[in-house]
Amino acid sequence: MKVRVLGCSGAIARGSRTTSFLIDTDILIDAGTGVGDLTVGEMLRIDHVFITHAHLDHIAALPLMLDAMGARRRQPVMVHALPQTIEAMRAHIFNNLIWPDFSRIPSEEAPFMRFVPIETGDVVEIGGRRIEALPAQHTVPAVGYAASADPTARKDGKAATWVFSGDTGPNPSFWQRVNQLDEVRMLVIETAFSRRESKLAEISQHLAPDTLAQELAQIAPGRDYPIYITHTKPTETVQILVELGGLQKDSQQKAHPPNTTAGVSRLYELHALQAGQEFDL
């Protein structure tokens, strides 16, 4: 299973694309502005889109993508999302005012897309891969996702899993499920704001460096995997990475006894996610 980062920014600027990940060639996780870097041929191969929530930075490219390639497809694109997210997209995007309702165009029998309601905990199997909706805690109904490769295709027989938090504030339920997953190979987790904007992060139910540290402390002992930081605001990215670097250094120096100030008691492998990166899991 391959994961290609199309966009991982919390807002737009030159070189910054908002959230979207391509799983192999046919599954999108979110449809932010990063989708716009795909060719028409690449978009035509996308059969499934999994949306975390209805905020614009995660859905902005979906209506434009459907317009670009819908008429050339033989089957509708399946758009998986929470019922509340589908309702929001129907009411505010695909309403024949902001954008055509491609769930009924060119006809209800053969539309460009079909909405597929999911709930937290649901698992969708696509070509031997499993996409599971994970709990998220945000200002609107939201989920994260875990994508698992077919274990029979791997020599070790284990299901390599890619985990994405989606947009979320502190969320014990997320860690409870992640700690149960087999063979997590990579965690992508948001940190939208720096310490100076920690109050805004709290209000908007996002993470900042100190709350991220508290979240990572919930990873079960012995379950170590690379952690990639996503959804940083372009104006905050440098400061966030500096602060996360400080937390890493502090955790290394104070691992014994635990660093109770930052909530970190072990050293985690933190990386800044970048658009254009590809990972072979």
TrEMBL record:
GO terms for molecular function: 3',5'-cyclic-AMP phosphodiesterase activity; 3',5'-cyclic-GMP phosphodiesterase activity. Pfam families: Lactamase_B_2. Coiled coil: none annotated. Residues 17-223 form the Metallo-beta-lactamase domain. One of its GO terms (biological process) is cAMP catabolic process. It comes from the Bacteria. This is 3',5'-cyclic-nucleotide phosphodiesterase. It comes from Hylemonella gracilis str. Niagara R. The lineage of its organism: Bacteria, Pseudomonadati, Pseudomonadota, Betaproteobacteria, Burkholderiales.
